[in-house]
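Milestone 3.1: sequence recovery, worked example.
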């Protein structure tokens, strides 16, 4: 897997207990630790969730068990981590925050708001909320936005999340960053990083739609099952959007002009690493990449061609950690991804043979050892030296 590391100065903050590494804009301004160092509690009802999430300042790591209907809003206070106990942990309703609070981490949750509770969003980040890290969550069927960021909120990272709808409500608008063209107090705020996220079935617009903010979009995947006639990225009044190594798959409009006739122009800059598959690279906007803002943190760019597999494998509440095994990108045995299973790959395979440690990239049947099962598969592919890039069915893969 080809990656490029961009060094611009970085603070890396690890969660405790560790499940994630905070990155992007959420590392700035003192960083984001959530409830690190606080008491670990498990909740399975809205009363207990409110008790811990709404306690001012006191750090808590709140583990969510099962499905909790939160209704109009839970108001999260500073120094909290909300973490799903497993991939089924779900919040139904509108998740909000106490005004001007900060340092909040949300991970491994399914979030939905089909009943239009509260703001109608899954998560409403508004009123000067800062240093928030949202990762490996699945958002679906929210009546307004799935995740909206507005009103001077700042220093936010959204990573490895999935967004989708099971029906067309007429308002399948996913992520709003900046609430109004008149909200000029947002200048200098709304600094948001979004990476390795996937927008898929039923999404139509706002992925995201940006006003005023500095928004860094890299290694995101826009699926071929978006609703027709919409757009992915909305370039609004005074928006500053950096677009790097994303994958646009048969989308109607990769980005759209939302500032013309409304105020000061927005700007968008994109590198040559984006993939526009069966869709056109937009020509209406000047590419401001050479002069667009430079993120004040380090980050790693994956090849855009790898992004659909990476997001399918790792994003969402059920996303898996680490890199996908090599056969997700081609044939089993093609460790160097040359398109052939050859002598170079044989040398790699022998290093795994009969081993039981650090073998995820070779243990095809997940039985804890690279043995005759993998040898037979390797030998068959070696014999045929195929250029076929179709993904084989992975044992245990949904």
């Amino acid at each position: 897997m080809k990656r490029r590391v961009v060094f611009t100065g970085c603070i890396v903050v690890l969660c405790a207990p560790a499940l994630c590494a905070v990155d992007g804009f959420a590392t700035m301004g003192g960083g984001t630790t959530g409830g690190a160092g606080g008491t670990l509690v498990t909740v399975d009802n809205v009363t207990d969730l409110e008790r811990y999430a709404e306690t001012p300042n006191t750090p808590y790591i709140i583990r969510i068990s099962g499905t909790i209907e939160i209704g109009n809003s839970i108001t999260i206070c500073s120094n909290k981590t909300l973490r799903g106990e497993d991939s089924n942990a779900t919040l139904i309703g509108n998740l909000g925050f106490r005004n001007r609070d900060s340092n909040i981490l949300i991970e491994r949750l399914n979030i939905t708001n089909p009943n239009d509770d509260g703001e109608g969003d899954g998560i409403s980040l508004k009123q000067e909320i800062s240093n928030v890290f949202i990762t490996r969550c699945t958002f679906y069927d929210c009546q307004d936005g799935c995740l909206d960021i507005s009103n001077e909120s700042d220093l936010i990272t959204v990573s490895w999340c999935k967004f989708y709808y099971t029906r067309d409500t007429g308002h399948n608008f996913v992520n709003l960053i900046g609430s109004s063209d008149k909200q000029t107090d947002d200048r200098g705020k709304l600094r948001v990083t979004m990476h390795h996220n996937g927008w898929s079935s039923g999404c139509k617009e706002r992925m995201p739609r940006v006003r005023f903010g500095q928004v860094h979009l890299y290694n995101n995947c826009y699926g071929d099952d978006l609703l027709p006639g919409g757009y992915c990225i909305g370039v609004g009044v005074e928006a500053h959007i950096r677009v790097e190594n994303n994958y646009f798959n048969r989308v109607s409009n990769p980005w759209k002009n939302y500032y013309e006739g409304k105020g000061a122009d927005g700007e968008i800059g994109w590198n040559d690493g984006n993939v526009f598959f069966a869709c056109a690279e937009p020509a209406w906007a000047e590419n401001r990449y050479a002069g667009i803002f430079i993120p004040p943190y380090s980050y790693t760019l994956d090849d855009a061609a790898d992004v659909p597999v990476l997001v399918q494998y790792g994003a969402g509440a059920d996303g898996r950690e680490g890199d996908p095994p090599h056969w997700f990108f081609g044939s089993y045995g093609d460790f160097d991804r040359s398109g052939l299973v050859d002598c170079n790959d044989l040398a790699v395979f022998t290093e795994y043979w009969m081993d039981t440690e650090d073998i995820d990239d070779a243990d095809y049947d997940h039985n804890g050892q690279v043995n005759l099962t993998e040898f037979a598969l390797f030998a068959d592919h070696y014999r045929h030296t195929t250029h076929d890039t179709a993904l084989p069915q992975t044992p245990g893969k949904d």
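The chain has four helices and 29 strands. Residues 7-18, 387-398 have pLDDT under 50 and may be disordered.
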